[in-house]
Amino acid sequence: MPRPIDPTLRRARRLQIIDAGLTAFARHGYAGATTAQICRIAGVGSGTFFHHFPTKNALLVAILELGAEETRDFFASQDQATPPREVLLGYVDHAVADLTDPRAASFITMVGGLTSNADIRAALQADEGTTRSRVRDVVTAAQRQRQIRADMTPDRLTVWIMLLIDGFASRVAGGDFDAGAEAPLLREQVELLLDGPPAPDLTP
């Protein structure tokens, strides 16, 4: 009788391969990264690799899907007592933390060149949809509680929050941009966006 599979161990091994794939893709690009290289970095055999991922393409999709999963986990883990405005700013910090990974620039550039791949495009769209949905829900709650500006619709304000984060990510991908050092300025810009223009001075 075969031994039961430990789901915790299975997930740990899967994440181990995903992390190795991220390293290999960042170093060698999609075409240059081989399953043999990924296996060496992960410290696993090819049989283990193909047990989890039938193709290199499936591994790349899994990396992108993990990003969406981490976004869902971030919002799901927030204490209900935390003000929605602080949740939004916390998400900005969460997003920037990923961009401080030294592999981020090369990986973002590589993925940007693969949008003609239907699987990759679908994974990117799903990731964006997850982020948009979660951020919009928190924006709506923050507006309802009068914690942020209310002169923009939740959809429009969500688009602008994502635009600031995506623009920051694009600069990281462009190189010569220290995500960790510049993160406080991104947070400041998001705070200014959430506050809206200052009230006019009506002092006579």
From TrEMBL:
Question: What sequence ranges are listed for the domain HTH tetR-type?
Answer: 11-71
Q: Which residues bind DNA?
A: 34-53
Short name of one Pfam family: TetR_N
**InterPro entries this protein is in?**
DNA-bd_HTH_TetR-type_CS, Homeodomain-like_sf, HTH-type_TetR-like_transc_reg, HTH_TetR, Tet_transcr_reg_TetR-rel_C_sf
**Example GO molecular function term?**
transcription cis-regulatory region binding
Q: Which residues form the signal peptide?
A: none
Q: Which UniProt keywords apply?
A: DNA-binding
The protein's name in its UniProt record: TetR/AcrR family transcriptional regulator
The species is Nonomuraea mesophila
